[in-house]
Amino acid sequence: MTDYETILIETRGRVGWITLNRPDALNALNSQVMRDVVAAAGAFDADPAIGAIVVTGSERAFAAGADIKEMEGKSGREMLMDDHFGAWGRFAAVRTPVIAAVSGYALGGGCELAMMCDIILAADSARFGQPEITLGVIPGMGGTQRLVRAVGPYVAADLVLTGRLLSADEAARAGLVSRVIPAADLLAEAEKVAEAIAAKSLVALFAAKAALDAAVETTLAEGLRFERQAFAGLFDTDDQKEGMAAFREKRPPEFTHR
Ligand code: CAA
């Protein structure tokens, strides 16, 4: 298995785990973290034995943002020419469902990384925010775009313009977080959710994720067309036959992910 410098990876059943591991920097996302996470997620995504991915951090921090110390001395030309955060696009494009299990700080790039995932589960200790404005910059890993889509323009503007943080409960009320969990139970709950997803047909999961993405990326008419095509396409899979036969025969389905 590949060695990574800044993350720990583990496979449990059909679930791939990525744990950010820069404790001294509150998991700040430097270029090496980006390379490691993108590579690990890509490897899980290419493996049909993996049906869900969990990304998590430490109790204290999911990630406290992009690495300020790495960026501080750069020029605008360097940020552009290096496409400093560009590779994160490959993480966002992973086809396998990804769950962010967030404890502690999810700030700046940390909040943006969580928003690249499909589901955000939060410990009651979690704090979300886009504090870049206090550094004299703005979110640069998708925050202004994904936050508006996640919580609407007014809550997003409140966070992006003031830099204030949301508690886990506030984030849940705003629609960013789907479940708030006592901190001690976060990983167990993430495992349960990930296992429940990974037990489903991987072909159907890919289609579901792509259709959900289409909803935020396209018009309603295009999204509906995409959904209709994807829905029909699934009727050529073994898993559709198995899922519906299992329903008729009143037994659990045994998906082969084909
Ligand atoms: N980059 C680099 N290092 C960071 C970091 C970051 N984003 N966040 C924390 N660290 C480092 C600190 O510098 C400190 O290291 P040293 O011990 O070597 O000084 C270590 O992590 C622990 O942090 P603190 O001592 O500050 O811990 P705290 O409990 O007092 O405060 C905190 C925690 C409120 C999260 C505070 O660390 C903080 O405000 N961090 C920065 C948050 C931020 O501004 N994030 C946005 C970054 S820019 C960005 O993300 C751009 C984008 O859109 C992609």
Keywords:
258 residues, globular, single chain, 12 helices, alpha/beta, four-stranded mixed beta sheet, 16% strand, six-stranded mixed beta sheet, binds acetoacetyl-coenzyme A
Explained architecture:
Helix content is 46%, strand content 16%. The radius of gyration is 19 Å and the shape is globular. By secondary structure, it is of the alpha/beta class. The strands form 2 sheets. A 6-stranded mixed beta sheet has the order 1-2-3-5-7-10, with helices on both faces. Residues 25-26, 28, 64-69, 85, 105, 107-109, 112, 131-132, 135, 139-141, 143 line the site of acetoacetyl-coenzyme A (CAA).
Mean pLDDT: 97
Number of strands: 10
User: How does the major sheet shape up?
Assistant: 6 strands, mixed
Neighbour order of strands in the largest sheet: 1-2-3-5-7-10
Query: Which cofactor or ligand species appear?
Result: acetoacetyl-coenzyme A
Helix content range of the residues, please? Answer: 40-55%
Beta percentage is 15-25%
- Shape annotation: globular
Ranges where pLDDT stays below 50 over 5 or more residues in a row are none
N-end to C-end Cα span:
26 Å
How many distinct helices? Answer: 12
Rg, Cα atoms, Å: 19 Å
Order of helices and strands: EEHEEHHHEEHEEHHEHEHHHH
Q: Structural class, please?
A: alpha/beta
Topology:
Blueprint lengths: L6 E6 L2 E6 L10 H15 L6 E5 L4 E3 L4 H4 L4 H6 L6 H5 L5 E5 L2 E3 L1 H8 L2 E5 L3 E3 L13 H9 L1 H10 L3 E2 H7 L4 E3 L4 H13 L3 H16 L2 H14 L4 H11 L10
Parallel strand pairs: 2-3, 3-5, 4-6, 5-7, 6-8, 7-10
Antiparallel strand pairs: 1-2, 8-9
Bound molecules: acetoacetyl-coenzyme A (CAA).
